[in-house]
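Hey L., structure's done. Input below.
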Amino acid sequence: MSTDWIHATPPTLADFETLAQVAWNSLPSEFRSMAGDVVIRIEDLASDDLLDEMDIDDPFELTGLYHGVSLDRQGATPETREPDMVILYRRAILDEWASGDEELGHLVAHVLIHEIGHHFGFSDDDMEQIEERVSD
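Output:
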């Protein structure tokens, strides 16, 4: 079956929310438990203010971001703060997807795993093992 590229449209923010939820649900339960009640948000591109803060010139270079308090900085008593959040940047991910040969759902899962994983101090090898478990 071939795709009708003349009438095709890119995946919407809602489509990305679905892809992210599928990726989240396929993660090992211990990984999801460690992440707690992380919020997954989809945006088209990072804001200019955020890009300036991170010293990034090209918004297509940032595919995702973990925003929250790392485990080693959380105190013993709960404090009032915003929920931990992973932001996936739809247009940057689509740009990376269009320039490669990776399935879009796999790329979304890859960005999600890496954003959460780096927050918890996981190595690239640790995250590769998690990704392998997801794709099995």
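The beta strands are 39-43, 64-67, 85-89. The radius of gyration is 16 Å.

-- N.
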